[in-house]
């Protein structure tokens, strides 16, 4: 399962830029990676883990702006078409999980 966080935050004042930077840093600290400007994603092994991350991020939402959360399955994520210019690129793969015997 993949969790997407999409946001549109104001950056018109010094305080707003600080809130933006703090929010972005939190996403990176939680293991999210930037897919596009203001679109971050993270692989989650289950819906429960995804819900946990949503809760953690929700606790620290910036005071202004819009933030959206969206979870998609691996299958849905795999159907994504990615282009750099007119050249098609491979979709990101889920990270390998360690197996314990």
TrEMBL record:
Pfam families: CRISPR_Cas2 (PF09827). It comes from the Bacteria. The keyword Transmembrane helix does not apply. GO terms for molecular function: hydrolase activity; metal ion binding; RNA endonuclease activity. GO terms for biological process: defense response to virus; maintenance of CRISPR repeat elements. The keyword Protein transport does not apply. It is an enzyme of class 3 (hydrolase). Keywords: Antiviral defense, Endonuclease, Hydrolase, Magnesium, Metal-binding, Nuclease. Its EC number is 3.1.-.-. Its cofactor is Mg(2+). Mg(2+) binds at residue 8. InterPro entries: CRISPR_associated_Cas2, Virulence_VapD/CRISPR_Cas2. Homodimer, forms a heterotetramer with a Cas1 homodimer. NCBIfam families: cas2. Belongs to the CRISPR-associated endoribonuclease Cas2 protein family. CRISPR (clustered regularly interspaced short palindromic repeat), is an adaptive immune system that provides protection against mobile genetic elements (viruses, transposable elements and conjugative plasmids). CRISPR clusters contain sequences complementary to antecedent mobile elements and target invading nucleic acids. CRISPR clusters are transcribed and processed into CRISPR RNA (crRNA). Functions as a ssRNA-specific endoribonuclease. Involved in the integration of spacer DNA into the CRISPR cassette. This is CRISPR-associated endoribonuclease Cas2. It comes from Blastopirellula marina.
């Amino acid at each position: 399962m993949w969790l997407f966080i999409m946001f549109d935050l104001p950056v018109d004042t010094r305080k707003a830029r600080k809130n933006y930077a703090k929010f972005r840093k939190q996403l990176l600290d939680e293991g999210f990676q930037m897919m596009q400007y203001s679109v971050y994603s993270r692989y989650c092994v289950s819906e429960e883990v995804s819900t946990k991350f949503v809760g953690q991020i929700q606790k620290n939402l910036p005071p202004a702006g819009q933030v959206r959360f969206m979870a998609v399955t691996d299958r849905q994520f795999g159907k994504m078409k990615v282009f750099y210019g007119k050249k098609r690129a491979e979709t990101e793969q889920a990270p390998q999980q360690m197996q314990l015997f």
